[in-house]
Amino acid sequence: MLTNADLDPAPLLGKTVAVIGFGNQGRAQALNLRDSGIAVRVGLRPGSARTAEAEAHGLTVLPPAQAVTDADLVLFLAPDEQLPAIYTSIVEAIRPGAAIGFAHGLCVHYRLIEPRSDLDVIMVAPKGPGAVLRRLYEEGRGMVALAAVARDSTGRAWPLALALAHALGSGRAGAGVLRSTFAQETLSDLFNEAAVVWGAVPAILEAGFATLVEAGIDPQLAYLECVSELKLLAELVEARGIAGMREAISNTAELGAARGGPRIVDATVRQRMRDTLAELDGTTFAAELMAEASADYPRLRQSRRDAAGSALEAARRSLAEGRS
What pLDDT sits at residue 275? Predict the structure, then answer.
């Protein structure tokens, strides 16, 4: 891991950065860069609902093609599925020899964007949501990030990427910057989302909740047991690691974990994880993402409706109402 002692901020000092988008990552990165002394412009389409928010923070907001004119670095921080069209619409306005940057490697790795040959192509990928990246920065801390270079046309791409990581606060105490590649960042991130934290964990919580309710356990108690304790687990693992977590829980809990974990996550589950990773290593997922966006997200909308109407969500709401 690289820290601020290893990161030279100079390659970004005196430069102008155009941030395209002001959502999850765009807002956090624009504000962190601004507070690190970097000149920032925000590129938003005319009429964007984000314009007033960005201007309220004292940022200059321009149409994307105007924002990138003469910028030294253009950060593409809108949703992945929107980036190919955005890139196509503004690429001719990006000055020769500039750099373009991403917070996720998907569009470059799957060649949804084919960057112009004279451009440096870099990535700094914070390993968490933009709101947390911003909060940690304001607290004087930082968020771990991956840095990568897909193309070094000028010979200055790596120093610029590491300077960007410095300006975002990722080299501060408690954080660090790991050199990586667009391919590794993309595959590991998508795999985590599909097969571990954002995909499998919620599915296990829902299945555990349903199993207890089917057995006659009160839904509120089932929610407390299967969902609420997840925060305790995450905090223990973050502070002490998995081995330390096991040392911190009771012998009863540890024995249950030793019996139940291998039974649930067995060889079949591990093979499905390998299959998922193999699928992500092809082009299927990127094509599905673009198709979902073109159809106005029917699968995601249905998934959100299903989650909002679930028995687990009803138990969560009843507990919250009881506490208020």
Answer: 94
